[in-house]
Amino acid sequence: MANDGARRRWTCTKQDFFPEKAFQSWGNYSRALLLTPWRLADRVLARSTFEAELEIKARSGNEMKRTLSWWDLMWFGLGAVIGAGIFVLTGQEARQEAGPAVILSYVISGVSALLSVFCYTEFAVEIPVAGGSFAYLRVELGEFVAFIAAGNIILEYIIGGAAVARSWTSYFATLCNHEPNQFRIYAHSLADGYNELDPIAVAVVLIICIVVVKSTKVSSRLNYVASIVHIVVILFIIIAGLIKSNTRNYIPFAPYGPRGIFAAAAVLFFAYVGFDAVSTMAEETKNPARDIPIGLVGSMVITTAIYCVMALTLCLMQPYGQIDADAPFSRAFQAVGWNWAQYLVALGALKGMTSVLLVGAVGQARYLTHIARTHMLPPWFAKVDSKTGTPVIATVTMMIGTAIIAFFTSLGILSNLLSISTLFIFMLVSLAIIVRRYYVSGETSTVNRVKLIVFIALILGSAIATAVYWGVSKNGWIGYCISVPIWFLATLGLWVFVPMGRKPKLWGVPLVPWLPSLSIAINIFLLGSIDKDSFIRFSIWTGILLVYYFLFGLHASYETAKEMEGEQISYDLPRSYLHRTSSNPIDP
């Protein structure tokens, strides 16, 4: 019987993937494709509602278990964030981009992350579902924007997990007294950046997958243990590192200038990725209104402080030009003569990265589950196992993707691509908070809606102009004298001239619209500091998402929405189009 249950869990039919009428025959599908422009016009700005997001939870078949408190979320937050970013990228960015001023890079990216945390917290409290930013954007910015964000959320989690898994291998090698890259297999026939194969990373990902599939509460308890050990090792690094510090290593402080600081900040944003996974656990939280703000904001403040002190310590231990890019903290202790300490540091780093993989696996599966509930992706991925109360299929699918990417792709490529996806999503969530507060469908007047659109356009335009000017003008300053005042006046205009349409019921972002607007500006500015190749990869991935959406996702979500609204689905072309082309109508 147990085997039969497991077999049913993994078997699927066409109905599990594409149950909508459009996919039941080639005739229906071809007619649906002809209707793509009209269906897109219907769905592109279609906004979900809080009630609808709660209603679609039923499509998973079983409820997720409410077992998490603010204490769980706090540790999940610390476990999700403190990992590969601080233990690997600190050395890479200090050596190549910022020098000792990498501490300022952490402050900049930390402020940006904290502003995003405020926005995520309000949404997580008001809309406590597993969909995270996908659900929030679907409610406020519409289905099309939410889908593009959803694809980048999936990409963010897969490449984030892959980057951490590869970093796990590097520190495991140092723990075994080997060079960081020594456990990887070099494939001469593959392109640079994809030719260092990492079977250990694959094995780690698969073990994490098994743990997460079993139970969220078990994952939480394991995260406790790993995070406590991790914090102890971090305290050792800070105290012991400061004992072996040398202030002369801080000269010069910013060898690469302001551009190096901001370029490093854009990449180091990767170090803060993970807190959004905590917001996806709202559906499993006992008291979302109390637990989520404490867990999210508290863990981010602690994390930012830890990052800054650790970066300070590393650059005091070694000259920035001698910092190891793969295992900086372990090698730093070796360089100052404490060979035994490098093994303790490597062990702590492994514990931390294990926590990041654990929490990331929990969060990414819940994102995929909620996206599949809307039928933008096949609903088979939305199934929740009746025995474990976890989304087993979504978890396994995401972890397989993570393992494949981790096997081939270098950390440098992964970290840049991850940062661009994350900054893009965080910018959209901040924008969604402004829309949520100032626009209420059916209540906001046309005049106020127009003013809102104008001010938002000016905020976005001025932020983009500032980022572009930073990228193309190495020493100029006149452009900032134009773009920054426009951003300030647009935010001021929104604050003064547009009445707020909605106030949060339980917990809200303070100083709206100033904090969300500042979050938008900082995120876009950091995007301007990311390399061109990452934007090319980001564009290719977005193009793939658009192809899938127009061929499958649009039609599945359109017909699902119409069924929920009780409307009959028609395959007839609009009369206006038939009149213009003098064509005969297509029979349904």
Q: What is the average of the pLDDT values? A: 82
SSE sequence, one letter per element:
HHHHHHHHHHEEHHHHHHHHHHHHHH
Low-confidence stretches: 577-588
Q: Taking strands numbered 1, 2, ... along the chain, how are they ordered across the largest sheet?
A: 1-2
Helical stretch tally: 24
Quaternary structure state of the chains depicted: single chain
How much beta, percentage-wise?
A: under 5%
Number of strands: 2
Radius of gyration: 24 Å
Q: Distance between termini?
A: 44 Å
General form: globular
SS-based class:
mainly alpha
For the report, how would you describe the main beta sheet? 2 strands, antiparallel
Helicity, in percent?
A: 55-70%
What's the gist of this structure?
The chain has 588 residues and is an all-alpha fold. The chain has helices spanning 2-10, 14-17, 26-34, 36-43, 50-55, 70-81, 84-98, 102-126, 132-140, 143-175, 199-214, 216-243, 257-268, 275-279, 288-317, 328-335, 339-373, 392-408, 411-438, 446-472, 478-497, 514-527, 532-564, 575-581; strands at 185-186, 196-197.
Which descriptors apply to this entry?
588 residues, mainly alpha, 24 helices, 70% helix
3D architecture notes:
It contains 24 helices and two strands. The chain is mostly helical. It has a two-stranded antiparallel sheet. The longest helix is centred in the middle third of the chain and has 35 residues, at 339-373. The chain is globular and about 80 Å long. The model is unreliable at 577-588 (pLDDT under 50).
